[in-house]
Fold ALA-interacting subunit.
Amino acid sequence: MSSNAATTSGGGDSHPPRRNSKRPKYSRFTQQELPACKPILTPQWVVSAFLLISIIFVPIGVACLLASHDVVEIIDQYETECVPENLRGDKLAFIQDPRTEKTCTRILTVPKQMKQPIYVYYELDNFYQNHRRYVKSRSDKQLQDPEYEDTITTCDPEDKTGTGAPIVPCGLIAWSLFNDTYSFSRNKKDLVVNKKDISWKSDRDGKFSDKVFPKNFQSGTLIGGGKLDPKKPLSEQEDLIVWMRTAALPTFRKLYGRIEVDLEANEVIQVTLENNYNTYSFGGKKKLVLSTTSWLGGKNNFLGVAYITVGGLCFFLAMAFIVVYLIKPRRLGDPAYLSWNRNSAGN
Ligand SMILES: *[C@@H]1O[C@H](CO)[C@@H](O)[C@H](O)[C@H]1NC(C)=O
């Protein structure tokens, strides 16, 4: 058998394979003859690769840090200060009592010149918008299409009023809409806050219909948060649209509006604030944030620090390899280093 096989395949390369031959068709893939990159990592290569990475990364990191440094941010935490001192013992009673005075005045000083647009955010803390039962309690169909107003099943426990009428927009997310309000003035003159275009355009155009109007919203005995104007379609209720894009983390900021004038250093801004929203029952913080932006967005040092760390590490490794190479160089592929050679040398 074996000699037979040897004769059939003997002069194989020059003859075309015979018809019933078991020999596989020749291809460079099956024969593992495809071209491949087989770099030899010489010290020069390794050191220059590390150096190149550090030369690229460190300047990017510095640019990111500078951009973040240029952003001016004013943060004012107010959930305690906006409760009158004699009522701070029981903040929950204060916020739940509709007769208490919720208006509160805050004074902010601008630390550095702030170029417009200045973004106004509210920041909540310890608020788990990512909780499973909360996230699922909404109906995108109902928001999109007036036909589905009555047939929603996913909004439990905020789907119907006590008398069985459908709630639009339904669900816990809409129900818990943030309802603190802010207005700003400087030198007794109002600073206008532009609340248009604070939500995603795709949300306004696609997810929230201009034919669906709020109905029976916040009409129950337990009010969860803000109310909506029943004459405005959902696509124009931008605070709701922003609120319903749920945050992934328990500390989050949401856009409230934009101030479209420059603020100069040391100017005093007076904020008149309605402290309505109940974060006291779960110990959440409330903050008002005014912030400018750079080409990289808001204030955040993480990206810059990450780039500089990686770049710096690569630079350090490059230097270390250079030092090792200079102090104790060796020939590449020296067979004397092979274990069996070393052993025999030892014997
Ligand atoms: C604001 O929301 C709270 C719940 O967090 C509610 O008790 C209160 O009635 C609401 N106030 C207004 C003015 O909508």
Observations:
- The longest helix spans residues 43-70.
- Residues 72-292 form one domain.
- The pocket of 2-acetamido-2-deoxy-beta-D-glucopyranose is lined by residues 179, 223-227, 276-278 (CB under 6 Å).
